[in-house]
Amino acid sequence: MSTSSPNESQKDFASPEEKEGQTQLMSLKQSKFAEIISWLQSWGYKVVDKTNSVNIAGIELQAEVIPRIPYSSGLSTPFYLEFQDDLSDGFILRTTFELDKNIEIHLNTQSRAREIELTYIEISQMILPMKVSIIRDHPFIKLYKVVFTNGLDKQYFLDCVTDLMNSMSLIIGKWDEKYYSVPPKETPKETPKETPKETKGKQGKKIDDLELEEILNG
Predict the structure, then answer these.
(1) Are the beta carbons of 33 and 63 closer than 8 angstroms?
(2) Using only C-alpha atoms, what is the Rg of the chain?
(3) Which of these, 88, 89, 103, 144, could form a disulfide with 94 (CB 3.0-4.6 Å)?
(4) Beta-carbon count within 10 A of 114 CB
(5) Which pTM does this prediction carry?
(6) Check: CATH 3.90.580.10 for 6-217?
């Protein structure tokens, strides 16, 4: 979503009625934000309110959520719950996956751009049914899902969280599969040098002095 906050300048010129509407909207967002955090905590997630420390323009409310169970890689990569100023009737669930350095180095040394591109296509196809969007920012993969607040209930929200986390698991698994399926790149083999024994026959028979004298004398 946006990383700028054009609404800030608009608020300066807003009429009293518009300011009142903005205040009510913010109050509704804060109420929904607190309710969603309480849901997550009741399900066993560790939630940290980052609203007062977030320094990204356009983000009004933000919470960091730690998964209950680490991903297959052993990492507990957090995801974020964000209310933004350009989205009045919804919020964002997002997370970022950084390609493991060992996998990144291994794939780069293979110089197989086509296979890497095909992997990204496969990843996009896998997470498409989950309605999770992907942004490629190598070596980062950014995932996000837009959730609307109208009619939002616990079950649907839990499904959205599960979709985001399953997408992350699929991506980690796909890159692990790619890493282990690509054989190590072989270094070019040097042509063995010929030994004197091997080159002796190619040089021809050495002519001794007697044979040379017979040739010269006819």
Answers:
(1) yes
(2) 32
(3) 144
(4) 7
(5) 0.69
(6) no
**What would the pLDDT profile of 152-168 be if each residue is shown by its tens digit?**
999 999 999 999 988 98
List, for residues 169-189, the tens digit of each pLDDT value.
888 887 777 666 655 555 555
Q: Nearest-CA neighbor of 10 among 19, 2, 21, 1?
A: 19
In this prediction, the residues of the chain whose per-residue pLDDT falls under 70 are 1-13, 70-75, 99-113, 178-218
Residue 12, CB-side half-sphere exposure with 13 Å CA sphere:
4
Instruction: Pull the structure tokens for residue 125.
Output: 């196809």
How buried is residue 161: exposed, middle or buried, by Cβ count under 10 Å (0-12/13-18/19+)?
A: buried
Sign of CA dihedral 190, 196, 199, 201: negative
Residue-range domain boundaries for the chain: 6-217
d(CA 71, CA 187): 35
Contact 36, 157 (CB under 8 A): yes
**Can you give the chain as a three-state secondary structure string?**
CCCCCHHHHHHHCCCHHHHHHHHHHHHHHHHHHHHHHHHHHHCCCEEEECCCCCCCCCEEEEEEEECCCCCCCCCCCCEEEEEECCCCCEEEEEEEEECCHHHHHHHHHHCCHHHHHHHHHHHHHHHHHHCCEEEEECCEEEEEEEEECCCCCHHHHHHHHHHHHHHHHHHHHHHHHHHHHCCCCCCCCCCCCCCHHHHHHHHCCCCCHHHHHHHHHC
For residues 55 and 37, give the distance between their C-alpha atoms in angstroms, rounded to a whole number: 20
